[in-house]
Amino acid sequence: MAERIAQPDCARGFILDGFPRTTAQARALDRMLAKKGLKVDHVIEMTVDPEVLTARIAGRFNCAKCGAGYHDQFKRPKVDGVCDVCGGAEVTPRSDDQPETVKARLEAYERQTAPLLPYYRAKGVVRSVDAMASIDEVSRQIAAILNGGKD
Known about the structure:
By secondary structure, the protein is of the alpha+beta class. The chain has six helices and five strands.
């Protein structure tokens, strides 16, 4: 990671998605960044309702032929089982989007990653975003955080 963030495209900043996942990783990241005169500026907490999130994720399905995405509540194909984009007839749920899998991922988050929040709150860098809002609103909230409060 140290090599990657030394690349020119990271000179004005970079976003880490899914890392660190543990407090030990966060401490190691802080040490590595400090050696470069850098620090974590923002940690964005995406707040969600676990039940609604599970329903949203479990309702997703894709075309096996072209990858077009659908949802059983929000974006169904015009003809059930047939892709609107390519006409493929294999429109199926993703195996990793089953309710049991989502529940296991949320439990792993609570066990392993949620303990990062107090660590970063103590540093004053945690900002919360209502991830249950519309995509446009979530994007606006994140942009405001990254732009120092300016929309």
